[in-house]
Amino acid sequence: MDFVMPQLAVGSRADAADGAALQAAGIDTLLSLAPLARPAEVALQLGLAVADRVALPAATIRAAAAFLAARIAAGHRVLMHCEQGISRSPALAACFLHEHLGLSLDEAFARVRAARPQAEPHPALVASIRAHYAGADGPAVDLAGNENPFGPSPAACAAIARTAARLHRYPAADSAELRDALARRLGLAASQLVIGNGACDLIDLALRAFVGAGGEVLIPDPAFPAYRSAAARVGARVVTVPLAGSEYSIDEYLARLSPDTRLVVVASPHNPTGTLMDPAAWARLRDALPAGAVLLLDEAYRDYAEGRALIDAAADVRRGAAVLALRSLSKVEGLAGLRVGYGFAPETLVRRLAALCPQYHVGSLAQAAALAALEDETHRRASIDANFRGLEMLTAGLTRLGVEFVPSAANFVLLRAPRDALARLAERGVAVKCMARYGLPGHIRVSVGLPAENARFLAALGELLREDQDCRDAVPA
Ligand SMILES: *Cc1c(COP(=O)(O)O)cnc(C)c1O
């Protein structure tokens, strides 16, 4: 058996049948394209039946890459079993190296060949793979939603599967177990925690509980549109607080505080700039709050800012400050589709939020998945580390292209874009976020994706810039 990367080996039928050797190599997962009995030492096996022996359908490449990504992100080692001569499994391993390490296809095939010289993929097989990545049926790349490109926490998925059998029962009405677990992590009391259907649900509750019709809310500009839409739903009066360039200006906030202020919104890291509010500036704002006002800190991207100077809102809450911090499981934990997030604040504020929630507000799948995801340190670590590498790759690429961008502490980058960038990137199969709704025409926001996705975005952006350059060169002086 030959390792093409520390977590992925390619081996023969005999290798795949040798449970003791697999165990000695730390391998607990098999991926095979041919029928194969699973040795007892192997915890999980995926069999992908492929009728065509010298070409790989796009669906097989996608399924294999997604399976490998999830298992490897969760800390497992995988053996891909390969029949001699046909070499579809080594070719699939090359696909994975291409997608996840950002190697070109040639580099990926060379890496596999170096580890396993006898694997010589049929030319038709190589052609089918090149067509998949180059052609119209290549996977579209979605870098618009700031989602975790690695997928959901596998532990959360397993918890959902376990909980599904009990879906005829109502969920814990007060999410007690989840609130206890969060309280322990944060050094707070469970009575200081509130669970919502995503952070957006809690933003809505905060506007309803603390602001209401005619009340005044301070919202940074530009910002995540959910604050404004929540304010509009309750008929609140919005006072916008401009950023200074891409950074927060605390003086702009202080100048707008008044006895009418009910809620002040801050996001750190901020969306769409990816910048942080300085903890000292935050403390000034907190200490200047008028009586009865609440300071909301949206920390949906906090995990990605690891290693930076971050606001300690839990300490503020412990000291009784009128602070509500919001966090989401939609980002690092990869559960955006499930809708679960939480907030923490002094108990008096939490009670006012909870009073607006109907009974059985948060479903049992969301509660169970959140509990499991918070414990899934492997997925969290892998996701954050991959994001650091992806950010580096994107920012190095943008610098090379001479594109102006904002250095980010999150999993996305705001950049100045060429004309019609959204449509022209879409033609090349790359979706990014339009910034018109954020009041930033001429900009786009791109999420950090898998290495191959980042590479595809940079290649497409490079094409746009060269096209525009050619147009300018073609205009007679
Ligand atoms: C993505 C995001 C959230 C998360 O919202 P959910 O409702 O938990 O999915 C919250 N705030 C900001 C600024 C975001 O970008």
From TrEMBL:
Gene3D superfamilies: Aspartate Aminotransferase, domain 1 (3.90.1150.10), Protein tyrosine phosphatase superfamily (3.90.190.10), Type I PLP-dependent aspartate aminotransferase-like (Major domain) (3.40.640.10). Its cofactor is pyridoxal 5'-phosphate. Its EC number is 2.6.1.9. Residues 58-117 form the Tyrosine specific protein phosphatases domain. Pathway: Amino-acid biosynthesis; L-histidine biosynthesis; L-histidine from 5-phospho-alpha-D-ribose 1-diphosphate: step 7/9. SUPFAM superfamilies: (Phosphotyrosine protein) phosphatases II, PLP-dependent transferases. Pfam families: Aminotran_1_2 (PF00155), DSPc (PF00782). Homodimer. This is Histidinol-phosphate aminotransferase. It comes from Aromatoleum toluolicum. The lineage of its organism: Bacteria, Pseudomonadati, Pseudomonadota, Betaproteobacteria, Rhodocyclales. The gene is hisC.
